[in-house]
Design brief:
The protein is α/β, with parallel strands linked by helices. It folds into 3 domains: 132 residues, Rossmann fold (3-Layer(aba) Sandwich), CATH 3.40.50.1390; 170 residues, Putative Large Serine Recombinase, Chain B, Domain 2 (Hect, E3 ligase catalytic domain fold, Alpha-Beta Complex); 93 residues, no CATH class. Helix content is 43%, strand content 19%. It is built from 16 helices and 16 strands. The strands form 5 sheets. The protein has a 5-stranded mixed sheet with strand order 2-1-3-4-5, sandwiched between helices. A 3-stranded mixed sheet has the order 8-10-9, sandwiched between helices. Helix 8 crosses helix 9. The radius of gyration is 27 Å and the shape is globular. About 1% of the residues have low confidence. The structure holds zinc ion (ZN). The site of zinc ion has 9 residues, from helix 13.
Length: 414
């Protein structure tokens, strides 16, 4: 049995470690963590000029063949992304290694699947390396900043009330143009909100109206329309408000002369993403004046503070033990941040009598149990809600509540 060293490099890039330095790192890691003899006799597999997106790489396929023929005792690579850039491929590969009793080591990230903590960490880290690639999106955003100065639409579905129109030559770009019948409905929403001061009332008043998909407008959808700066004009006041919310402002006060134009947003809402979204001055006319719009924002924000949205960290894999329906997380009215898990069969159809489960308690207990099972380090125990959700998604095969006991079934990690 031999140790195997796997190196990969895409040929078209100057960035990243060379094949030679990957190999040297792996050898010295083997010498330190196994033995000098293992390091010296290790078999080397090198894929040069292949991306980590696909598994169809010659040396990778040769390595897999040798693993299946039980010639290999352990595989070492320089970084996780040398093996695969896809979490799904990576997971499948780890399962294959484990079936063939092959340990997997990573020279730069201190993982050793021969130890239980190493196995758990490996899965968590592979999720994180995928998240890391999302910083690529930031580079795309930088380009957007430079593109955005003329009020052009940078792609994606147009906001409700607008359609995308290509500008005639010589302008090589698209802008938003009003769709009058949709804008009339948006105008109606703003008018209703001013009248009733509550989004639920707006939804009731518009109950007969259908959206683009032919469905009724949900309160959530109405809220997103009322809060979208696309409908109000770029001004010093709206810029100040949006900047306080975490948006980058892509227009200057000097550029605000002339007709009142609506704004465009690129990137995710500040609450939903790490990177800063950008707001620019569009080329479409504004529907509602900025002072009125700002007043409405203030009112919606106050309402929201009383009923912050809550969501449990137990998701798609959580079922009612009595009837088999999905358990869903529902915010408790009037109590800040509190939520319950409720059987969907009970909530929707009254077809089940399973007792509700206190959301905060269930979340804490499930997290604790998973941490214990994975033998998690302190650092992992204290990660935030979205991190917990990612780890649970990965580790929990099924959660079940029967009114008395919360049962968690974890995926086998080894
Ligand atoms: Zn049920």
């Amino acid at each position: 049995m031999y140790a195997a060293i796997y190196c990969r490099k895409s040929v078209d890039t100057q960035r990243g470690a060379s094949m030679e330095s990957q190999l040297a790192h792996c050898r010295s890691y083997l010498a330190a963590h196994r033995s000098a003899e293992t390091a010296k006799t290790a078999w080397v597999y090198q894929d040069e000029g292949f991306s980590g997106a696909a598994m169809a790489r010659p040396a990778m396929q040769r390595l897999l063949g040798d693993v299946r023929s039980h010639l290999i005792s352990c595989v070492v690579c320089y970084r996780l992304d040398r093996i695969s850039r896809s979490v799904a491929d990576f997971t499948a590969l780890m399962e294959e290694f484990s079936r063939c009793h092959v340990d997997f080591l990573c020279a730069s990230e201190e993982f050793d699947t021969a130890k239980p903590m190493g196995r758990a960490m490996l899965y968590i880290a592979s999720v994180f390396s995928q998240l890391e690639r999302e910083t690529l999106a930031e580079r795309v955003r930088d380009n957007m900043y430079t593109l955005a100065e003329s009020g052009r639409w940078l792609g994606g579905p147009p906001p409700y009330g607008y359609r995308i129109v290509r500008k005639p030559p010589p302008h090589p770009y698209s802008v938003l143009a009003p769709v009058d019948e949709e804008l009339r409905i948006v105008w109606e929403m703003f008018a209703c909100y001013r009248k009733y001061g509550a989004i639920a009332e707006v939804a009731d008043a518009l109950a007969g109206v259908r959206n683009r998909q032919g469905n009724a407008f949900t309160p959530r959808y109405i809220r997103s329309i009322l809060r979208n700066p696309v409908y109000t004009n770029a001004s010093a006041d709206t810029a100040a408000y949006l900047s306080e919310l975490g948006y980058a402002i892509g227009f200057s006060e000097e550029s605000l002369s002339g007709p009142k134009r609506g704004m465009l947003i690129f990137g995710k809402h500040p609450n939903h993403g790490e990177a800063m979204p950008l707001v620019i001055r569009g080329s479409h006319p504004a529907l509602i004046a900025d002072d009125e719009w700002l007043e409405i924002q203030q009112s919606i924000r106050i309402q929201k503070r009383c009923h912050p949205p809550t969501a449990g960290i137990l998701r798609q894999f959580f079922f009612c033990g009595k009837c088999g329906s999905m358990m869903v997380s529902k915010p408790r009215s009037g109590r800040n941040g509190a939520h319950d898990y409720i059987c969907k069969g009970k909530m929707r159809y009254g077809s089940c009598d399973c007792e509700n489960l206190n959301g905060a308690e269930a979340d804490a207990r499930a997290w604790e149990a998973v941490c214990d099972a994975l033998d998690c380090a302190e650092k992992i125990r204290t990660i935030d809600r979205s991190g917990r959700q990612a780890v649970l998604q990965l580790c929990v095969a099924r959660a079940e509540w029967d009114g008395q006991i919360l049962r968690l079934t974890l995926h086998r990690l080894s």
